[in-house]
Task: structure prediction
Amino acid sequence: MSKLAKKPFSIPEGVTVGKDNNRLILKGEKGELVLTIPPGIEVAKKENAVAVSGKESRIVGLFTSLVKNAITGINQGFRKELELVGVGYKAEVAGDILRLALGFSHPVEYKIPEGVKITMVENTKVVVEGVDKQLVGQVAAEIRKLRPPEPYKGKGIRYVGEVVRRKSGKAMKVTVGGA
Result:
């Protein structure tokens, strides 16, 4: 059994855990998540703790991580921040559509999926929030993929704090290697 799943982990206050057939239902102040329990995995709720057990340790460890992330999500939520770097790059939220001006000849529209909230801190900072860690990360990655940062000028969409390795250009190579 994995080290992660050896001990039962505690359930914080305000979080309820229920079991229905092969589904684990978690409810908290931020929302509700439903996880499908894989075959061969047993989930037991003991007072204020949840214990995950099974024969295959890799699946037990994975499902334990999924349950812990779900508990964190419904209790605190998850958040990813993106920044738009480039002249004229900006974004705005209109209903369930994120409109982005990314230097193309047309604005790019991204439909915001259900379960995710997108807000704007400034017109160049996009904040993706939600209770499902996988969905928040997927939405942030899809938005970043619309215009990933390029290595020559550093323009594009990047995560806040992401370091983009810059390349010198063709002009720099000529001056260094020239005789």
User: Anything to note?
Assistant: The mean pLDDT is 89. The first helix runs from residue 57 to 75. The longest strand covers residues 78-85. The chain is about 20% helix and 40% strand.
